[in-house]
Write a structure and sequence with these properties.
8 helices; 2 domains; four-stranded mixed sheet; single chain; Glutaredoxin; alpha+beta; 180 residues
Length: 180
């Protein structure tokens, strides 16, 4: 790894402070990897190659380990994404309680199909294999927020809020690790 690559990414001051606190909180540097990936993605919108090099250098993990997490977890991105990536669980539990109708409603409202991005780049619609909320489906993830027990009306409220630039708080306190 070249010296340029190692120094071409850094977290902003607030992110570096959070990173230092994570290092104090977790038992090993490697265990900080996922929360640190959230810090990078929160700042950049995705995890660019220079940030992967930075994570490797800071935490003593391999590039393969970082890529394992990026490629396994649907919430991590290696490429720039739409402003709002709506991931609807399409696993069997959510499917049975209405995920197909939620997809259909979102496709109609956004004018796109699953796997596409709106022409303006504001929304993308994706399926997710399982988001771990089997008893509260159908459900959708937007960044770190879970929206559960979805109905077309709830989806409309979420979209209306996002169109105004406001990410609505989910009606659950459960959010993914790494949130502000």
């Amino acid at each position: 790894m070249s010296e340029v690559a190692a120094t071409s990414f850094t977290l902003a001051d607030a992110g570096m402070e959070r990173f230092r606190r994570l290092l104090e909180r977790y038992p090993t540097k490697e265990s900080v990897l996922m929360p640190a990936m959230w810090l990078v993605q929160d700042q950049e919108g995705h995890i660019p190659p220079a940030a992967i090099d930075w994570l490797v250098e800071q935490l003593g993990v391999s590039h393969a380990r970082v890529w394992e997490l990026i490629s396994f977890y649907t919430m991590f991105r290696s490429e720039p994404q739409a402003e709002y990536v709506l991931q609807v669980c399409h696993n069997i539990s959510c499917h049975i309680v209405g995920a197909p109708s939620i997809f259909e409603h979102l496709e109609k409202k956004l004018g796109i199909r699953k796997g596409e991005r709106t022409p303006c780049g504001k929304f993308a619609l994706e399926g997710a294999e399982c988001l771990g909320a089997c008893g509260m489906g159908p459900m959708m993830q937007l960044g770190k927020h879970y929206y559960e027990n979805l109905t077309p009306e709830k989806v409309d409220e979420i979209l209306d809020s996002l169109r105004k630039g406001v990410v609505p708080r989910p009606d659950t306190d459960r959010e993914l690790e790494g949130s502000a």
